[in-house]
Amino acid sequence: MFSGFMINAWEAATIVAVVAGIVGFFTVLRGSAFAAHALPNGAFAGAAGASLLGVNVIVGLGVFALLGALTIAGLGRRARHDVATALAIVMMLGLGSLFLSMTTEYAPQIYSLLFGEVLGVSTGELLPTAVIGALCVAVIFVLYRPLMLSSVMPDAAEARGVKVKQMDLAFLIVIALATAAAVPVVGSLLIFSLLIGPPAAARSFTDKPLHAMGLSVAVALATVWTAIALSYLSNLPIGFFVGTISACSYAAGRGWMAWRRARTSSSGSAVVTNLVQT
Q: For residue 257, how many other CB atoms are within 10 A of its CB?
């Protein structure tokens, strides 16, 4: 489990989990789940086009993910953000369908881009994944304060001179870059689960941003590590375990939040009862 090609799998999955945990925290905080779903699917179209042309798929992923981010940001200034996102994903999926109809030669590679092939990550793919991931994390921490303010209180952010539209574009580009790094590992259909599940679970356990971000990374790491181990032992698709564990982590977070609210409510009722009796 820890020798040969598996080392690449552990390293790539770790990089993707850290990036997804950090970027996903702001994805959930900003309500950008639809965009986080749209951009990986659009990036898949770019990867299919790159495979058709014989170009490195990461190049196709990056180009189409960035084009998708720019399209969503541009259309979002003139229409509702969800409508702009829907139009972007429809356009990119249409192109992806065109590319797929033109070839069947790269079917296994295209399948792996949809559902991930972490056990097939080569040594040459690790460096681009690490560089893109480091860039995403660096941008998040450089823009942390204005990004946080524009996420929580956009009106107050504008009053303080933060350019909210530019923050939207910058964050969409970060999602696009994270997508380019993650799709070859977990697939365009499953990166969404890592960007949403662990961060949403973390926000259920704590209200402190930095604590939630750290917990999000921890849950994402636990998710991918457990998924790799279970996939290796059972010979079942890793995507099944990633999606299932992410969903279970969110369910656990919601359960914890409900229990905490019930406990707080019962404690408050007990205090009121004691005050009335005295």
A: 14
CA pair distance 114, 150, nearest whole angstrom = 33
Site of tokens 């590679």: 109
Q: How far apart are the first and last CA of the chain?
A: 65
As a whole number of angstroms, the longest Cα–Cα distance in the chain is 81
**What count of other Cβ atoms lies within 10 Å of the Cβ of residue 96?**
22
Q: What is the pLDDT of residues 219-271, one digit of tens each?
A: 999 998 998 888 888 888 777 888 889 889 989 988 988 888 888 776 655 54
pLDDT value at position 22?
93
Q: What is the pLDDT of residue 104?
A: 59
Place of tokens 């009053």: 159
- Amino acid 79: pLDDT: 56
Find the angle CA(38)-CA(237)-CA(129) to the nearest 5 degrees. 55
Q: How many domains does the chain have?
A: 1
Max mean pLDDT among 59-68, 166-175, 263-272 falls in: 166-175
- Domain hosting residue 67, numbered range: 5-277
Q: How many angstroms separate the Cα of 181 from the Cα of each of 23, 134, 176, 178, 269? A: 12, 10, 9, 5, 50
CATH code at position 246: 1.10.3470.10
3-state helix, strand, coil in the chain (%, to 5): 85, 0, 15
Q: Is it the case that residue 67 has pLDDT exceeding 70?
A: yes
